[in-house]
Amino acid sequence: MTALWIANVHVTDPDAYGRYAALATEAISAHGGVFLARAGRHVQLEGRDRARNVVARFPSVEAAVACYNSPAYREALEHARGASERDLVVVEEVAPE
Predict the structure, then answer these.
(1) Among the four 6, 37, 82, 83, which has the fewest Cβ within 10 Å?
(2) Is the pLDDT of residue 97 over 80?
(3) Pairing mode, if any, of strands 52-58 and 3-11?
(4) How do residues 14-47 score in pLDDT, each as one tens digit?
């Protein structure tokens, strides 16, 4: 089953976060991830409002977790730490009926 990588982010250092985003894009793509949403228009209905919301689809939960744990993504994360407040979850998609 495919999986969604969902990040809700408040950026505190745009320059450092930009470096993260460039490196993370490469790592995500290398693990089969495809972006479905990236900081576009959103409406916060409940919970914490963060201006940057990112959704990527991966071939599986395992592929998404492998991406997160990969050396390339770990390198990207060094730029995000201290440059953002983030929540990140991977959710398996349901099979279409």
Answers:
(1) 82
(2) no
(3) antiparallel
(4) 999 999 999 999 999 999 999 999 988 999 999 9
Residues 6+ apart with CB under 8 A from 74: none
- How does 17-32 read in b/e, with b if 16+ C-beta sit within 10 Å? bebbbebbeebbeebb
User: With DSSP H G I counted as helix, E B as strand and the rest as coil, what are the percentages for the chain, rounded to 5?
Assistant: 35, 30, 30
List, in order of start, the domains of the chain with CATH numbers: 3-43+50-92 (3.30.70.100)
Neighbouring CB atoms inside 10 A of 56's CB total 24
Residue pair 32/11 in contact by the 8 Å Cβ criterion: no
CA distance 67 to 28: 6
pLDDT in tens, 66-88: 999 999 999 999 999 999 999 99
- The position carrying tokens 């390198």 is 75
